[in-house]
User: Fold these one by one.
Assistant:
Number 1:
Amino acid sequence: MRDGDFNRARIESMAGAMRRSILDMSYKCGSGVHLGGGLSVVEILAVLYGAVMNFDPSAPADPNRDRFIMSKGHGVLGLYAALAQVGFFSPDLLETFQQNGTDLASLTVMNINLGIESSNGSLGQGLSMAVGIALHARLRGKTFNTYVLLGNGECNEGEVWEAVMSASQFKLDNLIAIVDDNSMQSDGESRGIMDMSSLSRKFDAFGWDTMLVDGHDVSSLYRGIAQRTADGRPKAVIARTVKGKGVSFVENSRDWHHNRLTKSMYEQALAEIGVS
Amino acid sequence: MGSRAVFGAALLELASRRDDIYVLSADLIISSGLDRFSKAYPDRCFNVGIAEQNLIGVAAGMAHDGATVFATSFAPFISMRAGEQIRVNLGCMGLNVKAVGISSGLSIGHFGNSHYGIEDMSVTRSIPNITLLCPADGAEIFKVVFAAADLKGPVYIRLTGGVNNPVVYGCDYEFVIGKSIRLREGDDLTVITNGTMVYQSVKAAEILQGNGISASVVNMHTVKPLDTAAVDEAASRGPVVTVEEHSVIGGLGSAVAERKSTLKNTFPQLFIGLPDSYGKPGDYAYLLEKYGLTGELIAKRIEKFYRGV
């Protein structure tokens, strides 16, 4: 965790640039993309990479770096945009997104040099890995934090709750889970598919500190993520978001879990996010 | 000593030499022979509860940060309940986790089909990047644990056998991953085997010797990467018989056959193992007898096969 490094305007500007990159990647790749989830995670990742996490893009394997696990591997558009923004790789590499033989696949593939800590996409597994990293860090006296981003739909997976239990059993106060709670999943509205009711109460019941924040308000996110928790308790930040945030026809649309952005849609989307 | 007790003793010794060794289990610390380990190294032994998927994920996270992690559960649970976690973390990411399937094969006796490990070799063998080891006896379990720890990468260790495993190796020997061991020389045919079936196969070869059939016995302790040179040599000498305490589908017999089928002019192969079915439970000795996996019964089947080719 960095100290006193939050500047609202700067993080909002980073988020805006990330949305632009996401739309560029989505259009230029020429195939279907996970756009809805890519857009809902933008502010979360802007806050993490822009203000919270310690890392040095020129030393991506630094043993003391904060770790970030993209458990909802489907949010890669947001992750790649953030990694390019903070300098893990050149923005030119974003042109290779979803191209044959790429390192920037439609779901994360571990590549420490590019800042991608883990392979995800098979949902429900990232929190377990984050528990292992945080446990080992504590045992070794390392002071870095481990951050993990889950989706609300992903929380249907039983392994998530196995991991939730173990994080409190192992008293991992160096572990922060953020849930991108956009109320939707692949088949549509979560409430009609598998209603998880209150995620924060579920984490709370397992002994976690929980915070509810507006997942598109960078100040609210920063406060939620940065606030110190009680000793020995992992923290869950439930971030209320809108799937497809920023692009009207993508927002809350089940058609946009995975879809292809045409030229006219791309142009409309750019206009909506304020790019002329 | 049984396989699990030896395993626990081997890890105690290993941990005393290397401080990067950690052990995780899914509520089977005691069953895995790790009770002493957990008391000797409380900060290096963790119980994740009855949660095998999380077991592999947590092990992978520790390995991601530089640890060498052994994770244990009963063979079907770790290889199949956590099968996809093994695929993603050990296979795709190649993380340095040693997944250990305890009580594999039929050794868990009366527990029955839920606990028998008759598919774990097949499942783990098909996942890229994973080294697959099946030690023959206590001495070899010791060597396998140390060799797995020295190998930087994912391993599945398949522990078979009952409470008192018969000894195959009377004296020390060199163990190298991927290099099989010819335990017995014979001119007529070669038995390729691993795990506790090594002992039974050696016994079978002794019986066959008395009946005028001279059989080599090869301990194929590493199923992947397979010692293909040893398969080639066996196939060039005569018929090959595989013996495994595992389904005849996808395990050692299949691995050998996949190689052998690429060679010209070879004899047919006899697959000795468990049939493609789930049966009634029983104690270990009863089950070995029922499935023809004792030295005497293996010898009988090999003799019939050999006379036929």
Note: Chain B has twelve helices and twelve strands.
Number 2:
Amino acid sequence: MLPRRTFLGGAAGLLAGAAVPATAFAQARGDRPFRIYRVTYRGRTEVEDGFDDYLASNGVAVEFIERDAERSTARLPEFVEEIRALAPDLVYTWGTSVTLGVAGRYDAADRSGYITDTPVVFALVASPLAAGLVADLADPGRNLTGAVHVVPPETQLRAMHSYRPITRLGVLYTSTEQNSLSIVEDLRRLRQTMGFSLIERQFRLDGDGRPSPDGIEELIAEIGAEGANWLYLLPDTFLGTQYDRVVPAALANRLPTFGAAELAIRQGGALVGLISRYYSVGQLAASKAVRILRDGASPAELPIETLKRFSLIINLPVAKQLDLYPPIEMLNYAEVLTG
Amino acid sequence: MNSLRIHLSAALLGVLVVALLLFSFRTVDRAEAVLQPEIERKAAAVAESSAALVGKALALGIPLDRLQGLGEHLQRIVADNPDIAFITLRNSAGASLYGSPAPQAGADDAATVEAPVAGAPGGLSVVVWLDPDFAAEVVSTLWIDLVIVMFVTAMVALELVYVGFGAGLYAAIEGVENRLRSMRRGDLRLHLPIDAGGEFGRLARSLDGRLDRLHAAYASLRQRVVERGDKAAQQALEMLHARFGLGERVIEAPGRVIAVRAPLFVFMLAEELTRPFLPGYIKALAQPVPGLSPEFVASLPMVTFLVVVAASQPLLGGTTERLGRRRALVLGALLGVAGYVASAFAGGLLGLSLARAVSGLGFAMVFVAAQGFVIDSTNQRQRSSGMAMFISAILVAGLCGPPIGGILADRIGVPGAFVVAGGFAAVSLVLACLCMPAAEPQRPRGPAIRWSDFGRIVASPSMAALLFLCAMPAKIILVAFCFFLVPLEMQALGASQSTTGRMLMIYPIAMVLLVPTFAALADRWDMRASFVAGGGVLAGSSAFVLATASTDIPVIGVMLLGLGLGQAISIAALSGLVGDLGRQLPAGVSETSVYGIFRLVERTGNALGPLIAGGLLGVYGFSTTVMLIGGATALCALTFALTTILARPANLELPSAGS
Amino acid sequence: MIRLAIRTLPVFAVIIGFAMILAAFLNFSGVRTAYLDLIRSRMAMTAGAIATDIAKASSLGIRLPEQTTLPDLLARQSSAEPLLLSIDVEGSEGDILFSSDPARTGTLDDIAGDTGAFRHRQDVANDFGAPVGAVVVRLDRAAIDATIDKLRVDILTAAVPAGLGAVVAGCLIALLLLTRLHRIARRASDGRAGAEPLGSAEAEMARLQTSEAA
């Protein structure tokens, strides 16, 4: 635990402009720490804590160059330029949009605006395949690898079911996201075995075919009116940006929400979530970084791994609002948020 | 029957039962004082654990009327714990908020345990009502235990009477009694002399002295009268002869046989101790052998033992005769000591199998030597009462050994129990030296088993049917069930070794209590073949109680009772029928050969039992294996019944009618 | 007669004494088993409840090392058990992941060296039957042994008077029976039993001899 503050101190120093001369080769240099250029999407999260702790506990000394996209993709080209100038040993990216903005699609026609040689390790990308980051998870084949956090839909539903039996399950997703479509396909399959019916709604698309937040409240109201007793917040990238509208709308309709991502419950206000801990995702990503930095492994050969460690989290203030409390035995194995 | 032995045994039994009853009441009293708080403590643990959960929920801010699933949680606790009758969350007003409603009036006297919900307002508490039936059941189970203890203790004490008095004193006392009894009846025949010292020996000799003088006077007078041809005097003497049996000798009950009872009983007890824990012990030691199921592997050391017993018994008859019965028994007991102690320290299956083979050789040696001793010490007419004594010693050991062995294994572990078994074998060795006469009476031997007879015996269809459809399956099912499958299954059901040991008493109890009755009935009604077939069908069908209910301990008990009942019906009739059929065989086949081959077939069945059971168990599991073996046994018995009907009346029922 | 008494009465005393010792041992075993069964059932209940929660959480994909709510659950369950040393939750390698006794967390469970504890172990399997870990409830063996020792003393003390009484009564009855038989036999051998068949046969024989001699 001790060294982390030192790293942060080092990172702060870098941010102040005391840049270290660039070195082209990512190799162990004994006395000098590795340099990692880190791009986050909405400031520091527990993912970074897990990442830093993992490096520290493995005795890998690093200096960070910290940059934050501030929930927008606008500054990403600027960061790409800076990465080229500073030539760090490794680039770390948080989330699908940042990773896409820094590393680009694997099949992009013009890759000049992206980092194509420095190794990039991502965390918290729900589906690298659907995002077009790589063609094959087991064999990325480019300067990119990282950690995926997906809880299988069936397990999600089982957790939902043990909180409150599912009779009609509502879902709201983006019709253009491949990942979401395949999850919804799974849900349709599970209707039979688990005995519920499905109410599907898609986000509206704007003129360019991109999902739009317009009419979210109406869509939720429709789901509620059709008698849904759960709203499932599946790991949809666009949905992930709209929790602050989706969840209050669901609450207004007295519709309990079940989140698949930690953000959904910690900040979005979902009732329950079966989630991968951000901290663990960070650790898994860091394990990739260690392989690249210390062992000199090529990211192209490091498979993208899925985290299989989940936590069940109950949002008790939301339970109070909905007057829908968990079964008492669930308190024995669920984490309860009270604040 | 008013012999001193019976009086003494009855007195001993009476005194022991009174003492044990008093003692057992005191034990139960003490036990209740220890057990009742434990029952309450468990209820308290239940109450506190539930109260803590409720407390946590309330502390998190979940309202009291929104404790989802608490009712189900409490109901599950009641369902899972037989000692708990009701459990409820109660407020200070005594109203039940969750869980089963408070029991109605009349159950107020039941003990309750209450745990307050910490940090909750309004005096909330979780209340548990103990089920009074459970405490009663704990005590009644304990009483059943204690009654079994009384029974076993009394049986052991009675056996010890034989040990304690020794053969000499016993023979003297019995001799005196026999003389007095026959004299009182006016039977003044001469008795075999008693060579024991001591007061009763002297008394017997002095009684014999009077009788001898009388007989001598009678003989000389008779001679003179006959020489003189005095008809009147001759008639008077004839009347004396008819009235008092003067000039004749009594056929004695076999008093000398008693000498072998104690060492035999103690040695058999050693082997019987191992019954409840041996299969589980083997299984624990067994290393997986590729291609063989663990159950089959587990049967191998048992098979080794029984094969050694079966194969060596026919050969040991001559050996024990040459060595002398006492020396042979001592040697057998020594092998037993070595075998049991080695079993305790066997590191693996091979070592254990070797140890068991040594034990098996010792067992066979003791068995054959004791049997030989009985045969040596009895004449033809005393033989059956001598053999009855021999068999009763083995049966009583079979009855007392398993429960004691089970308790021993529970207390000191299986290796310790094996060492105790070795100790018993050593005691048997000492007893053999103390009790059995060193000098052997030399008797003319009957012809030994002739192997050439085997073909002639088996060539008789009715005999072959009897041997292979009844005698062999009876032993297979007995060994498979009692000595192999049931101990393993009991272990799998989580029963203690003590429980297994008590379970294994069911069969010998049925035998001890019922065999004499059924033997008499089979003879009186002249229905030996029917008894053999009927008993076989019943014993085999007992397995099918497993098909009607789930496999649990009481069901296994019922199955063993059915097996015991079936075999109690058939066992004596079977032995008698072998003799009946043997006399139908062509001349030249001796009865010894017939019985020798009968026993060999039985012992082969013994050895096949665990082999078959182990093989099937690995493939089909317990219930199916039991039903397969039981079904096959019943089917064999039915087939035998059919052949009997077809062969009637020429072969089967007639001879016994004439005998 | 004294020699007979010396020869037989100790035998009787030994037999009855042995029987009483055997009975005391077996009685004590029975009560001890009943007592330990009750304690085990209590341990099994505690371990079973925790194992159920672990299995439930595992079925939701929450791995045992990640079940961070366990310390709280163990603390609650352990407060209900007065004899408790610890409740441990072990991983599949025997490493203690959580324990109500903080000092044990992170150590390896030393089963052979844990002689001070009376243990109950409940294995936990996931939905597919694969082992996940185990719950081990450890009670204070010394406290349990103390109760058992007291039980042993109580039962053995109760056995002593009953046994002594039985020995005395048994010896008296045996002596009575032997004396009676002895008396009858001596009378018979002395020829004092004149009215009995032997006497009358001797008398008859004497008469015949006399008449023959005459």
Note: Confidence is low (pLDDT under 50) at residues 649-659 of chain B.
